[in-house]
Amino acid sequence: MNEMVLASHNENKIREFRQIFFSQKIISLNQLDFNNEIEETGSTLEENALIKVREVFNFSKKISISDDSGLEIDYLNAEPGVFSARYSGLKSKPIDNIKKVLKNLGNTLERKARFRTVIAYKDDQQEKLFQGIIEGNISKKMRGLGGFGYDPIFVPNGFEMTFAEMKPEVKNSISHRALAIQKLYEFINLK
Q1: For residue 125, which of 18, 56, 88, 113 sits 20 to 30 Å off, Cα-Cα?
Q2: Residues 99, 105, 108, 113: what is their CA dihedral angle, to the nearest 10 degrees?
Q3: Fold of the domain built from segment(s) 3-190
Q4: What gap in Å lies between CA 28 and CA 43, rounded to an integer?
Q5: Per-residue pLDDT at 14
Q6: Is there a catalytic annotation at residue 68?
C-alpha cells in the first residue's frame, strides 16, 4: 500500500499527517477535487471520524483515513470536546475558540486538560479506530506562533512550552495525533 486519502481540507492537518506518516503517500481531499461539506453530526469523536472516513471512501474507492480531535478540559466538564472546532460558533476561527476557553477558565488554577484524537481507517474489507491521548494543562495566555487550533494554550505534561512554541518535529513526536498515527502505522505494517 502506498497511498491513502486523508479526509481533510485543512492544510495544517495534512502537513502534520505527512510529516508524521512519512512512508505513505497522503492524498488530500483538495487533490481529489472533493468539495462536499461533510457534516460532523456525531456526538463523539469516534462517530465523527467514522462519518468522514465512510463518505470519503465511498467517493474515492481508495483506502481512506480520517480523524477527529478534541480538547477536553476537566474544569469545563470535558468541553470543548467534540465541539472543539466550532466551540464559539459554526464559522468560528481558532482564535475565537481559544478566547472562549480562556474566558471560561478565568483565573482558576484547575487547568488540567487532554488532547484526544481518534483516527478512522477504512478499506474495502474493514473499518478500524485508533486513539491517541496526551495529557497537559491550559496556559493562562496564548504563547507561541507555531501549530494550529488550540496549540498556543496547550502545555503537555513534562514540558513548559505550549505546542505552538515547540518545533514541529518535537510536537509531532509526542502529540495525540502522533500517538494515534503510530497505532495506525503499526496496524498497516502488520497487514
Answers
A1: 18
A2: -100
A3: Maf protein (3.90.950)
A4: 25
A5: 85
A6: yes
